[in-house]
């Protein structure tokens, strides 16, 4: 299957006067509909890499190709629209808007994109609410649900515009281990159902195992050594 996202010789250097190189010649391709985990020690460069993949930060050099388009020459507006069209983000802290309900929060990216909410969007939001198991709390304020429910609401929100790529930076970092597994099972279910590509950073090896592919970042490089996690070899 074709790659929906490709990184070619990505390098990242932070700083002007004092330069620190944090990514070195990263080459990676992500197949459409695949579920990928990114693991690695703290400070190894995972978030930097994810921000570059999500077009939130620029590589110092190298190419990012999203859905066949090289993003290097895109201006800010073009990047923003590619991001809105193609990428959904799930972060550790879900940043739901506290004064809005679960349903309203989930609809927010659609409203921002289209300036209105259609019947179809409302149906999709309600379908997503059922998938993530929030039917009973759809009209609760975002502050009046549990942490795990908030994270599930954030997942539904990231899916409302039907993005082809979903990037997660420690999406379950603030949840207990049982809720973490539930949320990952949910991501896998969505991956199967909607055929969206998932790339998810995790510190949790048990959940990393749930992926089709595990990528380890070590000192800013892709670690190509064979590693064994549970019963998976890469
Ligand atoms: N804006 C920045 N300016 C300078 N250095 C930075 C900046 N952002 C990150 N770094 C450095 O780049 C390195 C990689 O950071 P990054 O956040 O990508 O690692 P990580 O693997 O995601 O870590 P963690 O698991 O702790 O979140 C670290 O040494 C960090 O201090």
Automatic annotation (TrEMBL):
<keyword id="KW-0449">Lipoprotein</keyword>
<keyword id="KW-0813">Transport</keyword>
<dbReference type="InterPro" id="IPR003439">
    <property type="entry name" value="ABC_transporter-like_ATP-bd"/>
</dbReference>
<dbReference type="InterPro" id="IPR017911">
    <property type="entry name" value="MacB-like_ATP-bd"/>
</dbReference>
<dbReference type="InterPro" id="IPR017871">
    <property type="entry name" value="ABC_transporter-like_CS"/>
</dbReference>
<dbReference type="GO" id="GO:0098796">
    <property type="term" value="C:membrane protein complex"/>
</dbReference>
<dbReference type="InterPro" id="IPR027417">
    <property type="entry name" value="P-loop_NTPase"/>
</dbReference>
<protein>
    <submittedName>
        <fullName>Lipoprotein-releasing system ATP-binding protein</fullName>
    </submittedName>
</protein>
<dbReference type="GO" id="GO:0022857">
    <property type="term" value="F:transmembrane transporter activity"/>
</dbReference>
<feature type="domain" description="ABC transporter">
    <location>
        <begin position="5"/>
        <end position="234"/>
    </location>
</feature>
<dbReference type="Pfam" id="PF00005">
    <property type="entry name" value="ABC_tran"/>
</dbReference>
<keyword id="KW-0067">ATP-binding</keyword>
<dbReference type="InterPro" id="IPR003593">
    <property type="entry name" value="AAA+_ATPase"/>
</dbReference>
<keyword id="KW-0547">Nucleotide-binding</keyword>
<dbReference type="GO" id="GO:0016887">
    <property type="term" value="F:ATP hydrolysis activity"/>
</dbReference>
<comment type="similarity">
    <text>Belongs to the ABC transporter superfamily.</text>
</comment>
<dbReference type="GO" id="GO:0005524">
    <property type="term" value="F:ATP binding"/>
</dbReference>
């Amino acid at each position: 299957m074709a790659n929906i996202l490709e990184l070619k010789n990505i390098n990242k250097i932070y700083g002007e006067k004092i330069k620190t190189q944090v990514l070195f010649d990263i080459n990676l391709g992500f197949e459409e509909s695949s579920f990928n985990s990114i693991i690695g020690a703290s400070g190894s460069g995972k978030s930097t890499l994810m921000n570059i993949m999500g077009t939130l930060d620029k590589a110092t050099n190298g190419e990012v190709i999203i859905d066949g388009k090289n993003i290097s020459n895109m201006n800010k507006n073009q990047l923003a629209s590619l991001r809105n069209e193609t990428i959904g983000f799930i972060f550790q802290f879900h940043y739901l808007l506290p004064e809005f309900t679960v349903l309203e929060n989930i609809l927010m990216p659609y409203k921002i994109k289209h300036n209105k909410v259609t019947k179809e969007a409302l149906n999709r939001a309600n379908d997503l609410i059922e998938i993530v198991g929030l039917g009973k709390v759809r009209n609760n304020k975002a502050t009046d649900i549990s942490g795990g429910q908030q994270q599930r609401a954030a997942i539904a929100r990231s899916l409302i515009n039907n993005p082809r790529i979903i990037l997660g930076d420690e999406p379950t970092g603030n949840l207990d281990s049982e809720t973490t597994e539930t949320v990952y099972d949910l991501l896998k279910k969505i991956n199967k159902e909607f055929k969206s590509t998932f790339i998810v950073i995790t510190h949790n090896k048990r959940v990393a195992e749930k992926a089709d592919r595990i990528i380890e970042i070590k000192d800013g490089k892709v670690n190509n050594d064979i590693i064994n996690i549970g019963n998976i070899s890469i």
